[in-house]
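Standup notes, structure subgroup. Blocker cleared on the s-citryldethia Coenzyme A input:
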Amino acid sequence: MSDQAELTVDGKNYTLPIVTGTEGERAIDIARLRSETGLTALDPAFGNTASCESKITYIDGDKGILRYRGIPLEAFAEHPNFVEVAWLLIFGHLPNLTEYESFSKELTENANLDEDMKHHFAGFPRSAPPMAILSAMISTLSCFHPHLFELDGADQFEKAAARLISKIRTLAAYTYRRSRGLPYIYPDPKLPYVSNFLHMMFSEVYGPYLPEPEVRSALNLVLILHADHEQNCSTSTVRMVGSSQANLFASCAAGVSALWGPLHGGANVKVIEMLESIHRGKQTAREYIDAAKDKSSGVKLMGFGHRIYKNFDPRATMLREVSEKLFARLGVDDPLLEIARNLEEIALSDDYFLERKLYPNVDFYSGIILRAIGIPTNMFTVLFAIGRLPGWISHWHEQNSDPAMRISRPRQIYTGNPLSNYVPMEDRI
Ligand code: SDX
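Run returned:
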């Protein structure tokens, strides 16, 4: 195969290099396109554009492959440990015991928030959307760690990463507790990452919440399955913001805002609302599917479809298995799971979805699991953010460690007014 692309513009021939990735994926390197041809490339929503080279995550959307630093996602299912995967994504290798224990200790020691941050929580209406609070409070967090605005070296970066990954749990739990008028539950240094989060969410002053081992394992795996996904909308946002040399906290706060959108991380909330609407008998599964096929309805089958996966999303497959095991263990009988399975069966036998290669994505089953654990629907996307944070941090670090990094500044094609005159107010119609 050639390592060059030939381009002819106005009768003049140009050659552009073709770069090839580890797994053989190829791209035309257009870094010199404008300087050589005077033309730019137009690709709204970047469906055909690679924004960077990255060593973090590999996805093959046709084969349903997802690997973190080369390790297949399925390898983490037997003994899911979110902290281990966070280290792998951020530092590029599986942690040895010393690295793992040191990082875990740093997460434990940094779970608390500055007491003054409670004033900020108190300033929000109790009905405030949790994602609005999370984005604001990650930025606010940086004000209490000004020494981590400028990360001077590996040690400083690890401190910032550990503080964010540890404290996002506390921010999430306090958001939940405040919305219900419950007292804040402080982190317990004896508890590992996920158990400590569940403790801060659900323990009471008069008694601790002790999750079943299956719940701890399921939530570790749910967070792992959300941990990174290459250049998705929110990660690309983190990279874009980080390219201006904005600090890690500000960049991740921007990622939270991008993730909030219902076409992205907000879909897990919309899936449950869709399933509940069918459960209430507002419409049947078939009626919902027919509406999703009708462009004029504005309805989409939430949790279905993906820009990259055109066969199946391996995360959806794993999450469906997790939901079935967890429900069996907890003796949960959630009618929404049956409705989800029914919707999936109808859609996957319908030409509309098959022709467009629309399959369940990560958001289709995740909400059902979070419901079974007792997480309220409006906190689902916050859980997605907790999972995705190590991915955001690893991409921010990969980009900002590159000496060749430049500020991201896309071009455009202007299609507005030609040169026009200013018309004084008195002469305007
Ligand atoms: C996430 O990028 C990532 O990696 C994201 C993510 C991650 O881990 O970061 O995987 C997480 O965001 C998962 C996606 C969650 N969103 C949803 O479940 C919302 C529902 N899905 C759709 O909005 C849509 O499928 C997207 C946003 C996921 C993908 O949109 P694309 O790639 O722009 O696809 P498209 O809109 O161009 O759709 C192609 C066709 C269109 O029909 P035609 O114009 O060809 O006739 O498929 C149709 C669309 O109308 N279509 C759907 C549909 N998704 C696409 N029709 C009905 N229901 C749907 N869900």
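Discussed briefly. The beta strands are 4-9, 12-20, 26-28, 57-60, 65-68, 71-72.
Next: hand off to the docking folks.
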